[in-house]
Amino acid sequence: MLNPGQFEVNEAWIAFKLNDRALHTEQDGDFDFIALMDAASCFILSSAPVQVALAEPTQAESKQLLKQGRAHRKQWPKTLFVSADQPARYLSAEAERHGITVIRVEQDQLLPFIGEARADFKVHFESRGAH
To answer: Which residues are paired to 81 by β-bridges?
Structure first.
């Protein structure tokens, strides 16, 4: 099983969906939040709302997520882990364009990294009646 102690800061990033259920807005419909996290520190480098109907970040959103992630250390990671059940065609292509190796893993392998962030998101956003 993967764990934060296996990595140096900025060696690997993780792309994942922060929310369990979509967040609803009257004006723009339902959204998921995609986050980019440093695997060693579990620091969230960037996040973006993604329309549920699209299922994944667009090419422009993917570029922006990665650009914001890079801004913290001014360098790209070697690896990007993405949950096997998360659509990430554009994000994977953009990462590979920058020489980042994309590795698809089962979400349960990512829980030691993302579990706390997802729980905090749920408390702050999903429990406030958003559905």
So the answer is: 14, 103
